[in-house]
Amino acid sequence: MIRPALPYLLVALLAGLGAYGILARRHAVLVLIGVELLLGAAGLLLVTVAQTGAGGDAGPAVLTLFVITIAAAEVVVALAVLLALYRARGHVDLHAELDDRPRGGEVGDRA
Amino acid sequence: MPDLPDLDWSDLQLPDVPLPDLPMLDLWGGPAHWAILATLLAALAGLGLTGRSNRLGAWVGVGGALTAVVATLWQLYTLTQIRGSERELGTIGGLALGELEAPLRLLVSWPTALVAVTVAAVALVVQGYARWYLWYDPRYRPFAATVSLFTAAMLLVVHSDDLLLTLVGWEVMGWCSYLLIGHQSTRSAAARAAGKALLVTRTADIGFVLGIVALATGAGTTRTTEVVAHWSDVGASPTLTTALCLLVVGVAGKSALFPFQDWLPDAMEGPTPASALIHAATMVAAGTVVLAQLFDLLVLSGTARTLLAVLACVTMIGAAVLAFAQADLKRLLAWSTVSQVALMLAVLAAATTVTGPDAALQHLVAHAWFKALLFLTTGWLGVLVGGTAMAVVTSGARRYRVLRHRFGWGLLALAGVPPFVGFFSKELILGTAEAGSAGAGGMASVLVLASVGASAPLTAAYCMRAWLVLNRPTAIQGHAAAYHPGPVDRIDDFFDEPQIVQEAEGVERAEAAISSSARMGTSFLMLMTVLGGLVLLLPVWGPQVHLDLQLTLATLLLMAVSALLVRLAAGGVRTRDAAARIPAAASLAAERGLYADTAYRALVATPVLALARAVAWFDDQVLDAWVRGAGVGARLLGRVGDLTSPRRATPALALVLAGVVVLAGIGVMVP
Amino acid sequence: MSGLDVLFCAVALVTAGSALLSVTSRQVLHAALWLVVTLGGLAGCYLVLGAELVALVQLLVYVGAVVVLVLFALMLTRSGGVPVVTTVPQRVAAGLVGAGTTVVLGGALLSAFGWRSVPVDGASNEQVAATIFGTDVWPFELLSVLLLIALVAAVAVARAPVGGQDDPSQRPDTPPEIEAVQGDAS
After folding, report:
1. Is residue A29 included in any domain, yes or no?
2. Which of B378-392, B524-538, C33-47 has maximum average pLDDT?
3. Nearest by CB to B648, which of A19, A31, A98?
4. How do residues B262-314 score in pLDDT, each as one tens digit?
5. Fewer Cβ atoms within 10 Å of its own Cβ: the N or the C terminal residue of chain A?
C-alpha cells in the first residue's frame, strides 16, 4: 500500500523547480537542466499513475519509456543547437540582447 | 338570331376505328423512354460525336427527332391496346430522399400521348428546317444539339408523373431557351434577349420551385398522381392555395403571361427554327401541360383559379391588341403566341371538374401545328426578301406563290375559321368556359368567357392585317406569270449546298431555294392545320362539353366584322397595312411592348440594383471595416508588443510561463 | 504510513533537495552534477513505485547518456566563469511562477486523487514487453527512426556553417590552428 499523494507532491515540487530553473538561469545549459527536471516530473506522474491507478494496464509504463526516449532525442538536438549558437555568438547567455539593434535611443547591454 | 340547339361534342367525335392487331414488340423500356432517350442521346451525340461534320450533326438531330416521332406514334397504338388508356412507366428507380418519396415515374395517358406526338413532330420539322436555314452557320451543330435537348426536356415534362422530373425538364428548357435565343451571341440584341428571357423566366421559376416544394412536402411524395390524391383528400386549405398561386406565378413566367410577357417578343432575336420550336410546342406550352396534370388541385382553389384567369385574360386581350400594332411580322406572331398561350391557360382557369382540362391541351396541339407553320413560313419569306419587317414582307405571298397557301391556311387556323384546326380548339375553349360559367366555375369562368369572346375578333383583326399586307397584288406578278425560266432545281437534303439567290434569276428559282425536307416539313404542317381538326375529334379526349351554336355563330360574325373593318382601314394605305392608321406614338409604344422594359427597369431592376449596392456598401464599409480594424488593431498591438518586449529570452519566457500558470490556475479553480 | 511511504519520503527528499540545488547552484558544473543525483533519485522513486524496468531505463538513458552529453556541452562551450544567474527581480518572478506551478499542479492532483492509500499494482515486465513488441510495435519502430533522425540532425546542426557561410575559422575542427600549435610545441 502506498499513498499516491506523496509522488504527486514530488511531481508538483519538481515541476515548480523546473519552471524556476528555466526562468531564473541565463546559461543555456542550465535552462536545459530545468527542462530535464520538468520532463522528470512528467515521467514520475506517468509512472505513478501506471503503478497505482491503471489497474495493471501496461500502457502508461510503455508511454513513460517512449517519453524518456523522445526526451533523449530532444536533448541531443537541443545540445547541437546550443553548440551552433555558441559558434555563432561566442557565448550561450540567454539574458543578452537577442538582436543588436539599438532601441529608442537606448543602447543594449552588448552594444 | 334563331334559337339554335346545343350541340354535343360527342356527336361530332369520330367513331372508334377498329385497329389492326399489330404484334406488340417486347422492347426494352416503353415508347416514352425511347422518345426521351433518343432526343437526349441525339443532343449528347450532336455535341460530342459529330466532330466537325455538319452533315453528321444534322443526321443525328433529325434521327433523334424521327425516333421520337416513331416512338410516340407507337405509344398511341399501345394505348389503344391497354385497358384504362393509361400506362405507367418507371425510370431510373426511386431516389432516397429521407422522408420524401421520389419514385420518378412516368405516366402516359391519351392527352399527354397526343401532345407528345405533336412535340416530336414539330421538333422533327424544325430539325429538318434548321439544317437548311442554318447551312452557313458555324455553330449549327450546337444548335441542333440544343434543339434535341429542348425536345427531350419537353417530352420529359409531358410524360412526367413526378414533380421532380417535371422540374428537371422545366429547368432544362429554361437553359435551352437561353442558348437558342442567344444563338447569334455576337449580336448584342440577341445576347440581351437571351439574358432577359433567362432572368425573367428564372425569377418566375422561384414561385414554381416553391410551389412544387410546398406540394411535395405536404404530400410526402413527389409523385404527381399521389400528390393530387393527397391534396384532394385534404381539400381546400391555405397551404394548397399558396402553393398553387406560386405555381401559377411560375407558369406565368414560362408562358409569358402578364407581367412577365415581355421576354417572348424579344426572343424573336433567336433564329426562326428556334422561335418556331419555343413558340409552337415546347417551352411556352409547358405551363399548360403542368397545370393540366395538376388540374384536380387547381379546381380546389378559387384564389389560384381567379389569379390565373385574371393574368391570362389581361394577357390574352393585351397581347392581341399589341400584335395588331407590330411593325414586324415575327413580332406580330410572337405577340399572337402570347395571346394564344394565355388562351390555353385561361381555359384551365375556367374549366370545372365536369368539363376537365382537355380543351387546353387540345388547343395546345392545334396551336403547335399552325404556329410552327406560320413561323417557319415567315423564316422562309425572310430569307427570300431579306427581313421580316412589315414593309419588307409586303406582297410576299404574291411574289412567292409557294408561300401563299402556307400563310393563308396558317392565318385562317390562327384566327379560328372553320374548318381549320384553330376553329375546333377555340370552340372547345368557348364551350368549356361557357359550361364553367353556367356551372360551378364562378367568377373566373365568366371572366374567361368574356375575354375569349373579345379576343376572337382581335385575333381575326391581326390575322387579316397580316394577310392583307402579305397578299398585296404586285406589278411583278404579271411579269412572273409571263416568264418561264425552265425547270428549277430542288435541293437535295443534307448533300447540296443552297444556292445563293439572286433576285435577277427569277421568282420561281427563288421559290426553290429551300431544301426539300424543309419544304416538306412546312407542307406537312400545312396539312395538319386542316387534318388537325380530326385529331381533336378523336374519341379519346376527356369529359364532354356542349357547343352553343349561337355562341359559335356570334363569334364567327364578330370575327368577320372585325376582318371587314381591317380591310376597310387598310384601303387607303399603299402597303395595305391597316396598322398604319394607328397614331405613331401608339404604334411605337406597342412595338416596344408598352415600355415593359422601362417598367421592368423601374420596378425591378432599379430597386434590385439599389439593394445590391446597399449590400455591397454595407459589406465594404461596415463588415469589412471590422476586418480591416482587426488588422490595424493587430498591427498596433504588435507594435506595442515590439516596444515593450524585454528582448531577452528568459524574461520573455517568464512572462509566458506566468501566463500559462495563471490560465492553468483559472482552469483548475473555476470548476 | 506504510513502509513504502516512508521509503518514498526518504528518496523523494533526496530528489527534491538535489533538484533544488541543481537549479540554484552558481557553478555550472555543480548544477549538472546535482542533476545526476536528481535523476538518480527519480529512478529510485520509480523503483519504490514498483516500476523496475522504467527505473533501469531512466538510469541508463538519463544518468548514463544525457548527463554525459550535458557535461560535454559545458566543456565545449567553455562555460567556466560566465554569469549563470539573472537579476534579482527576475529570480523573484521566476520563483513566483515556480511556486504557482507547484501550487496549481499539486492542488489539482491532490484534489483529484486524495490522500488515501492504494495497492501498488503496476503492469509486470512481461506485460510491458508484450505491449511494446505487440500492440505498440509500430510506434516503437517509429521511435527508432526518430532517434536516428535526431542523431543525423544533431550532427548536421552542430557542423552547419555559421550564418549560412562556410567560414573555416568557425568550424569546430580547425586543423590549421591545431597544426600551428603543434608546430610551436615541436
Report:
1. yes
2. C33-47
3. A98
4. 888 888 888 888 888 888 778 888 889 999 989 888 888 888 889 999 999 99
5. C
Strands B105-109 and B86-90 come out as antiparallel
pLDDT tens track for B581-600: 788 888 888 888 778 888 88
CB B371 within 8 A of CB B340: yes
Spatial CB neighbours of B178, under 8 Å, sequence gap ≥ 6: B194, B195, B197, B198
Q: Is residue B100 a contact partner of residue B174, using CB atoms and an 8 Å limit?
A: no
Are the Cβ atoms of C54 and A64 closer than 8 angstroms?
yes
pLDDT tens digits for range C10-57: 999 999 999 999 999 888 888 889 999 999 999 999 999 888 888 999
Residue A107 lies in a domain: no
By C-alpha distance, the chain C residue nearest B653 is C94
Using an 8 Å CB-CB cutoff, list chain C residues near A74: 150
CA atoms within 13 A on the CB side of A83: 26
Across the interface, do A95 and B648 touch by the CB < 8 Å criterion? Answer: yes
The three cell numbers locating residue A108? 543594449
Domain range summary for chain B, segments of one domain joined by +? 6-16+23-220+227-234+243-594, 599-669
Scanning the structure block, which residue is given the C-alpha cell 483548475?
Answer: B668
- For residues B393-410, give the mean pLDDT: 83
Residue A102 lies in a domain: no
Cell (9 digits) for B322:
399589341
Measured between CA atoms, how close is A1 to chain B, in angstroms? 28
Q: With a threshold of 0.95, does the pTM exceed it? A: no
Per-residue model confidence (pLDDT) at position B284: 83
CA atoms within 13 A on the CB side of B576: 16
Cell numbers for B194, please give them: 437571351
Residues of chain B contacting A99 with CB distance shorter than 8 Å: 647
Q: Subunits touching B (CB < 8 Å, at least 3 pairs)?
A: A, C
Say what the pLDDT of residue B236 is. 82
Asked if C56 reaches chain A (Cβ–Cβ under 8 Å), the answer is no
**Which of C51, C150, C160 minimises the CB distance to A73?**
C150
Name the C residues in 88-147 with CB < 8 Å from any A CB.
90-91, 93-95, 97-103, 105-106, 109-110, 113-123, 127-128, 130-132, 136, 139-140, 143, 146-147
ipTM for the predicted complex: 0.82
Are the beta carbons of B341 and B288 closer than 8 angstroms?
Answer: yes
Instruction: Report the CATH number at residue A35.
Output: 1.10.287.3510
Which of A:32-91 have CB within 8 Å of C?
32-34, 36-37, 40, 43-45, 47-48, 50-59, 61-62, 64-66, 68-77, 79-84, 86-88, 91
Model confidence at C180: pLDDT above 50: no
Residue type, C18: S
Question: Rounded mean pLDDT of B106-110?
Answer: 86
Q: Which residue of B has its CA nearest to C90?
A: B651
Domain that holds residue A78: 5-89
Omega before residue B259 within 30° of 0, cis: yes
- H/E stretch holding B26 reads none
Which position has the grid cell 549563470? C84
Query: What's the structural domain count of chain A?
Result: 1
Contact B373, B529 (CB under 8 A): yes
- Residue A104 grid coordinates: 529608442
Tell whether A105 lies on the interface with B, counting CB pairs under 8 A.
no
Report the C-alpha gap between B144 and B128 in whole angstroms. Answer: 10
Beta strands in B146-258 (DSSP E): none
Whether the CB-CB separation of B487 and B464 falls below 8 Å is answered with no
Note whether B654 contacts C97, CB cutoff 8 Å: yes
The alpha carbons of chain B give a radius of gyration, in whole angstroms, of 30
For cell 429554361, name the residue. B174
State which H helix or E strand residue B327 sits in: none
Residue B5: its pLDDT value, please? 63
